[in-house]
Fold this sequence. Notes:
Layout: H1 2-10, H2 18-32, H3 35-50, E1 57-58, E2 65-68, H4 70-89, H5 92-116, E3 120-126, E4 129-130, E5 135-142, E6 149-156, E7 163-167, E8 172-179, E9 185-187, E10 192-196, E11 203-209, E12 215-218, E13 240-252, H6 264-270, E14 274-280, E15 286-289, H7 298-314, E16 319-323, E17 326-331, H8 334-345
Parallel strand pairs: 4-12, 15-16
Antiparallel strand pairs: 1-3, 2-11, 3-5, 5-8, 6-7, 6-10, 9-12, 10-11, 13-14, 16-17
Helix pairs in contact: 4-5, 7-8
Amino acid sequence: MNTVAAADSSTPPARRSPARRRGLLGALWAHFWPREAIRDWVIGRVRKRGGAITPPYTLAYRGIFILPTVFGFGFGGMLVFTALGGLNFNNNLALLLVFVLGALAQMTTLLAYRNLVGLRVAAVRSEPVFAGEPAHLYLDLDNPEDRHRFAVEAALATDRAGDCVDLRPERPASLALALPTRRRGWLEPPPLRIETRYPMGFFRAWSWVFPDTQCLVYPRPAQSPPPLPATGAGHSGQARRGDGDQVYGLRNYRAGDPLKHIAWRTSARHGQLYSREMESPRDSACVLDFHRLDGMDTEQRLSVLTAWVLQAEHRQLVYALVLPGRTVAPASGPAHRAECLEVLALFGT
């Protein structure tokens, strides 16, 4: 036993894995530099002082902030050490280089500021999506001045990067931002950040935009839903005349009728040409009833109803939607589909 204990005590301890070391360093960095808490505090101060900035809105000088980037801090540190070396060795050329580069870097703050000031945020748009799919916010920008604006970037406050565009003089542009969705209902996007690092990346100029746009998130369609109800409450759609599989009746022959539609026996018996008139019968209207889905919870029922709406619309059926406290009358078409999906998305909210 002592031999085993001695052998165990002589064994060197296992080294911490790089992933664990990075996790500890990340936790320490997050503890001493709470990035998200500082960001939320700054956004709250901006919103409190300036109010909600909603489109259409023109970026003014009071709403633009400028700070050095990491590259800018490194460049400034290099200038400091170069200046110390020039002073230590009494090197005038080194000091001249420091002053020239410092003045150049300082001038980029004005260029970054002018790249944003006067920029007009025309609108923030969104389109409905299904839960689990990324929602896209479209930020419409307008450049009212007769000059280019380079490397204008837009991003969500929770993201470090977004979409970037160069704006031509007096021309609009649009930026697309992706936002993850997890549940149905109205999705309120976080504040948007419009920024630029033009022209040399020493400084970052940005401004906050608080959009009042909401994105509608539909329920996630069921992957393997039950079969679509074949019929409902006796509603039937009207048959559609034209090319189809069933014979509707006979009529006099018209120039241009296909030969396969000519009723040869009837034509020979009556001594004149007759053509068959075909139709495509419309399926019976189905009622998508919330109460018929027994053994499921509310979200599962809404998921199945969403899949049924998509199937019925794909098959061009007339369908109705029945929910507790709400009924959508039988109809079909894109408008009816959008109404049913919106009712499902906002059910119980």
